[in-house]
Amino acid sequence: MKKFAISLVLLLTVNLVFAQETEKTDFEKRAVKIAAILEKLEELGKNKGKIEEARSSLDELKSHILEEPRFRGIVLVPRFEQPVKRIGENNGNPEFFDSILAEFQTVFRESEHPDLQRIAKMIDGRKRFLSLPGNEMKIESMLLDGKTFDWEPFKGKVVLIDFWATWCGPCLREVPNMRANWDKYHDQGFEIIGIAVQDKTEAVKLHIAKGETPWTILDDQQWIDAKNESIADYYGIAGIPCMILIGRDGKVISLEARGNKLNKELEKLFEK
Questions:
Q1: What are 98-130's pLDDT values in tens digits?
Q2: Angle between helical axes of 51-67 and 26-46 (0-180°, round to 10)
Q3: Of the candidates 172, 176, 193, which has an alpha carbon nearest to the alpha carbon of residue 184?
Q4: Closest CA to 165 of 111, 227, 213
Q5: Where do the structural domains in the chain lie, given as residue ranges?
Q6: I need a labelling partner for 108 at 20 to 30 A (CA). Which of 16, 155, 156, 213 fits?
Q7: In 11-35, which positions are buried (b, 16+ CB within 10 angstroms) versus exposed (e)?
Q8: Are 159 and 246 in contact (CB under 8 A)?
Q9: 187-209 tens-digit pLDDT
């Protein structure tokens, strides 16, 4: 997925601002409609809306994606996931989100469009991602120098896994806080592994040369070029930055270890 779903969500948001314009392409018109559906789902999640209402909106969303596959990534981002989960929980059906995801996956898998088939595969990855808390994370990738990554030196340490890219503004805005925590806790056993996704190796090397990110960097694109499966695809990572915190026992603590959430988690681990 080009630039992942972060670009898609931004596109939807921007198109809402221009919703009153009379001249729009079909793509822009559909973006406005999809953004409206997502807003409705969010409202249903907040206001304990009924599952029947949600299902109608989800069916409409499914139709839009089938007709315009460029919107395929929306089913893997939190703006879709979180309200649908809340709707199910509010209606005494905690399995509702899983059932919806399975429905989308079946339809995409049966499609002849290769991008939709890829999303169907990534949904399996999303399930792996959501099951990570309390479990170990499989990390297979490549260092910038072309060597295969080895987890052994990181055993027994607190490790932040950061899916990022040089073209991702929100990713780069996380760096100062990450660096502050690195400087504060690194000597106590805190490590960061940045996984560059959908990026050019040379662009990543130029960024690293600035000296702002002294931690380990993995290159997902080199790993893919060597005929391996993308780790981002393996875990259904559709939006970046995505930051996962792993404890000393090798098990995942948090799937949302960004900003102040990261600060609080590290305080609990290092300042007991």
A1: 999 999 999 999 999 998 988 888 888 988 998
A2: 160
A3: 176
A4: 213
A5: 4-130, 152-270
A6: 16
A7: bbeebeeeeeeeeeeeebebbbbbb
A8: yes
A9: 999 999 999 999 999 999 999 99
